[in-house]
Amino acid sequence: MGDLCKLKSGESITAARIDGHSAYLCYGGNGLRGYTSTFTHDGKYALIGRQDALCGNVVGVEGRFFASEHALVVTANTDIAIEWLTYVLSRMNLNQYSESSAQPGLSASKLVMLRIDAPSTAAEQTAVAALLSDLDAELAALEARLSKTRALKQAMMQELLTGRIRLL
Fold this sequence. Notes:
Elements (H helix, E strand, L loop, with lengths): L4 E5 L14 E5 L2 E6 L4 E9 L8 E10 L3 E6 L5 H9 L17 H4 L10 H41 L6
Parallel strand pairs: 2-5
Antiparallel strand pairs: 1-6, 2-3, 4-5, 4-6
Helix pairs in contact: 1-3
């Protein structure tokens, strides 16, 4: 992993500096915490939650944002597509590498030692990421359709069981 990217903890921020209306998104270890008036990063990155029960969560972010000390910021090397790397990281179950203590935590030094096989070019990586994104969208649509079908079946069974509808 260390050959593909750099990992660095975000910066410290107090709760008083986080609000619901400032200009820049503020991310912590478990996703969006709120907004702040300053930013630490500008561009495309992956963030890995590094503390608490949800450590190992991965989220892709873009634009100007503030990354708190509870997130590891993944900066892809120039020949690596960050979209691809974000997909790979999100499927690696990074929580399994957390160190046991009072609260689980991930260290950058441990993660950079993990082995990741990468397609040889950024163009291939981008194509893989686009395909995975399309498949995720298709799966979400199929899951929504399945949920609606199950709800319809449930409603029809209820009608039959209460006798409101009779089969001849």
